[in-house]
Amino acid sequence: MSAQTDFRDRQFLAVIGDEDSVTGLLLAGIGHVTPPPDNQKNFLVVDNKTDNAAIEAAFDKFSTERKDIAIILINQHVADRIRHRIDTYTAAFPTVLEIPSKDHPYDPEKDSVLRRIRRLFGE
């Protein structure tokens, strides 16, 4: 597959996060459900009862199975729960962006993208 077609069909955002973050983004219009029979959603609401395997499964689905996802937004505190998967993810598409949540402030030291940039510049 050429680089041109790698991103051409990617038109949706996906979000993995707490209820407030997902709700806000859905209200902003990012929600999408694929046609039947699979009816796949492009979001996952995570709470303290959600197990890490479910978060990893959603991340894998959005990052490898779904070819229509361009950007994966994930709350940083949720990304911490699957940090080993986030840190080893290297594909350009979909791009993974860590975002803050209402109850958990953003820590740039944990952000995998910023850490990669620092390594590139030798910091």
TrEMBL record:
Location in the cell reads: Vacuole membrane
Q: Which UniProt keywords apply?
A: Hydrogen ion transport, Ion transport, Membrane, Transport, Vacuole
Job of this protein: Subunit of the V1 complex of vacuolar(H+)-ATPase (V-ATPase), a multisubunit enzyme composed of a peripheral complex (V1) that hydrolyzes ATP and a membrane integral complex (V0) that translocates protons. V-ATPase is responsible for acidifying and maintaining the pH of intracellular compartments.
In Swiss-Prot or TrEMBL terms, this protein is called V-type proton ATPase subunit F
The record's annotation in InterPro entries points to: ATPase_V1-cplx_f_g_su, ATPase_V1-cplx_fsu_euk, ATPase_V1_fsu_sf
The text of the family note is:
Belongs to the V-ATPase F subunit family.
NCBIfam families per the UniProt record, alphabetical: V_ATP_synt_F
A molecular function (GO) held by this record is: proton-transporting ATPase activity, rotational mechanism
Q: Which organism is it from?
A: Trichocladium antarcticum
